[in-house]
Amino acid sequence: MKDRNSRMRVGAVAGAFGAAVVATVGAASGAGATVTQMGMSPGISVGSATNYGTGCTYQARATVTDVIEPVVFYDNGVAFAVARPSGGVALVTWVPTTPGPHTISAVQAPDDTIVASLDLRVGTGMHLGYSCIVSGG
């Protein structure tokens, strides 16, 4: 009888521990939504000082910890796109409209804390077929 009672206690403790782990994991899934890395693809743009030019199209990339929550992208603090991640990565198109310094950042709800950003210089872009020639910056 003593052996049976001890097994029942062990089972109850293991069940309670399992329930606590499930509750913790469930609570953490939305609470820790964070952008961990930012990137910008210059495509086939070229320039002597920078590869980013006004009016040219680029792809911004945010690596995230939550594969469900939307990601909001910002250019110098102004939101320019929202995307849902796919496989832990959110991709959007960015077309700079002004030359000079730009800070590209992204946040993932519900955290809304910027932990990854990217500083870029933008010159004046001139389209040449599928590429962009950039002067200044």
Protein model, in words:
It comes from Nocardia iowensis. This is Ig-like domain-containing protein. It is a single chain. This protein is an alpha+beta fold and 137 residues long. The protein folds into 2 domains: 1-31; 33-135, Immunoglobulin-like. 22% of the residues lie in helices and 43% in strands. The strands form 3 sheets. It has a 4-stranded antiparallel beta sheet with strand order 5-4-7-8, with no helix packed on it. Strand 9 and strand 10 (131-135) form a beta hairpin. The protein is elongated, with a radius of gyration of 23 Å. The N and C termini lie far apart (82 Å).
Which topology of the largest domain does CATH recognise?
Answer: Immunoglobulin-like
N-to-C SSE series?
HEEEEEEEEEE
CATH class of the largest domain: Mainly Beta
How many strand units?
A: 10
**Could you say how many structural domains there are in total?**
2
Level-2 CATH architecture of the largest domain: Sandwich
Quaternary organization: single chain
The radius of gyration computed from the alpha-carbon positions, rounded to a whole number of angstroms, is 23 Å
Report the portion of residues in β strands: 35-45%
Q: Strands of the largest sheet, in order across it?
A: 5-4-7-8
Count, helices? 1
Report the uncertain regions. Answer: 6-30
Calculate the terminal CA-CA distance, rounded to whole Å.
82 Å
Helical content band:
10-25%
Quickly give the structural class: alpha+beta
Signal peptide: 1-27
Protein name: Ig-like domain-containing protein
Keywords: Signal
